[in-house]
């Protein structure tokens, strides 16, 4: 708990909760671990069932990222 966040909560007239950057980091870190565990379980279950569902989902996401994600543009040098 960040002292500044707790003070802001006390000073506001509306019911708002503030989180510190450290709290936000811990939330993101924890949710990332949960997401990786879920993906791992999904993959393991599909392997046990001899199913391609998880693989198809991953390939679908990869396709979206490949088609619409960030692209690297190489800088061509210009001789003057």
Report on this model:
The chain has 80 residues and is mostly helical. It has one domain (3-68). It is 68% helix and 0% strand. It is built from three helices and no strands. The protein has helices at residues 3-11, 21-49, 53-68. The protein starts with a helix and ends in a 12-residue tail after the last helix. The mean pLDDT is 84.
Q: What's the short version?
A:
This protein is mostly helical. Helix content is 68%, strand content 0%. The mean pLDDT is 84.
Q: What are the segments in which pLDDT stays under 50 over at least 5 consecutive residues?
A: none
- Summarize the biggest pleated sheet: none
Cα Rg: 22 Å
β-strand amount: under 5%
Q: How many structural domains can be distinguished in the coordinates?
A: 1
Number of strands: 0
Q: Average pLDDT value? A: 84
Question: Helix content range of the residues, please?
Answer: 55-70%
**What is the CA–CA distance across the termini?**
58 Å
The total count of helices amounts to 3
Structural class: mainly alpha
Mass-distribution shape = flat
What order do the helices and strands follow? HHH
